[in-house]
Amino acid sequence: MITVDIEKKLKAYKGQQVLKIARQFPVGSITKIYGPSGAGKTTFLKVIAGLIGPEKGKITFGDAVWVDTDARINLSPKKRKVGFVFQNYALFPNMTVLEHLRYASPNDSWIARLLRIGKLETFADHKPEYLSGGQQQRLAILRALATKPKLLLMDEPFSALDPEMRRILIKELRAIWNEQGTTVMIVSHNPQELGGFTNQELYIEGI
Ligand SMILES: Nc1ncnc2c1ncn2[C@@H]1O[C@H](COP(=O)(O)OP(=O)(O)OP(=O)(O)O)[C@@H](O)[C@H]1O
């Protein structure tokens, strides 16, 4: 179980808004996170990953304490080992598709499977600037999966994919998550695009 009970002040344009979330996420659950623009969805994922610290609260993953502000515990992102798909992909401009995946995993057969799932086999030696937006987005997803994270955080991961590609990819991802017992949190401003495959939801309200 992942237990989150945090407060984070948002740098809102006017005044100050506080993001308050208290929720439990069972291992293996797939949560859709939605809500208005600027509500704090991305900020929430970054707090879970350890990229931003909350002012107050606790995050635990099973027996491990990731954050406890009273006890001054704030585990580094490296130690939390979550997978993160950034909204803007955050790819490495000088690395090919294959190099992105090798950087994350030494396992060639696993990498071959990922390339197949993302339909990027024939683009393995391409750098990001020679990929389409959809191909770049799929690479960002594959890279996050490559380390086989126990927790995968995805920020608008399917926004650049057409409905058919999205449907096929989601089917493959579900099979992997099932095999590996991955817990997944997906931010989407358009929850319909996720179809019915999520089994939890978290609505983050705006101001
Ligand atoms: N590191 C930070 N610390 C505190 N507040 C932040 C930080 N980064 C962004 N914010 C603020 O948090 C608010 C919410 O931003 P965030 O990107 O989390 O929203 P969002 O719900 O993901 O929006 P969108 O759907 O438009 O991407 C904004 O007002 C932003 O200025």
Automatic annotation (TrEMBL):
Residues 1-207 form the ABC transporter domain. Keywords: ATP-binding, Nucleotide-binding, Transport. PROSITE patterns: ABC_TRANSPORTER_1, ABC_TRANSPORTER_2. It holds the Pfam family ABC_tran. InterPro entries: AAA+_ATPase (IPR003593), ABC_SmlMolc_Importer (IPR050093), ABC_transporter-like_ATP-bd (IPR003439), ABC_transporter-like_CS (IPR017871), P-loop_NTPase (IPR027417). One of its GO terms (molecular function) is ATP hydrolysis activity. This is ATP-binding cassette domain-containing protein.
